[in-house]
Amino acid sequence: MPDPPPSLDPVQLGAYFALIEVTSLLRHAVEQQLREAGDLSYVQFQLLARLGDAPTGSHRMTDLADGVVYSRSALTYQAGLLEKAGLVTRAQAEDDERGTTVTITDAGRERLARVFPGHIEIVQQLLFEPLSGADVKALAALLEPVRDHMRAIPPRSAAPRRRRHAS
Amino acid sequence: MPDPPPSLDPVQLGAYFALIEVTSLLRHAVEQQLREAGDLSYVQFQLLARLGDAPTGSHRMTDLADGVVYSRSALTYQAGLLEKAGLVTRAQAEDDERGTTVTITDAGRERLARVFPGHIEIVQQLLFEPLSGADVKALAALLEPVRDHMRAIPPRSAAPRRRRHAS
DNA sequence: TATTGTTATACTCTATAACTATA
DNA sequence: TATAGTTATAGAGTATAACAATA
Hints:
homodimer; 3 strands; mainly alpha; DNA-binding; Arc Repressor Mutant, subunit A; 63% helix
């Protein structure tokens, strides 16, 4: 067998294209709402939401970076913006002197609260309106395993031929 | 009823988050592959693919812009890059003196062909590997109506609190 | 030595508004 | 007037590599 089949069947193509377009349109609408309602980019919202979800309201930089897929420097940049806006604080981690702990502030939670209703409204209208309860369940059941698979398979270097540190 | 319910149930949240993360990871992997294999951004690939699909290999600028959601100027920028790289040509439309027709070149088709196998391989491995044939069918059946709904509902101005049809 | 995080830098991409030309 | 497309501009965001400090 010559490795993986070099094509997608029509059904796969349909699913793939629909997935791409649905997410693209949804993302676009959400970004607009977040910007208008709370002057937040999507990434900033994700960071705030992640902090807001945490029991302590805090995360290490590395944890945040892992969750958002970005480079460290991109996270530093965004954390800097959020800090300047008073939505988070940064402090040295207690257990590891190298680390930085990011914590959401009251203003951050407030901002999150201000933005959330509109966010949910859009997701509800755009994504879920045409789906029945059973549909939503089915969608989650389909996508959650895919997500787990994606998280597991490529540690972060889904590169076909990359190899680091050849020392 | 106070308009739309201000929350998502746990199943909806699961579906929403999985959708976002799956697409984000997939997109990231695909972008990397396109860049490495053919020095193309995702947008550029989309444009080329759209032109390659067209019977004539051509599209009007406006048609391309509509499909890629972007602003006109962003499209002009990308078309300029593709033209500079010799992957497309731009010429005045025949029927409408205002219009510009973009056409994919042989080099453009070649580039597309060079990039496609790796693209498909990634989608196959990341998205479809954990899904059965029936799953894929179900996924398409769920997402395609959502896509149609999204295309139809908000003409492009999903304003946060505007209520349309107040007539 | 490896890891955490920051900084400097360069680059890509996008949107807005002003502008030209045609319908 | 409205539409098609371009241009100028300005801003947001990202990645890379070099760096400092701690493990």
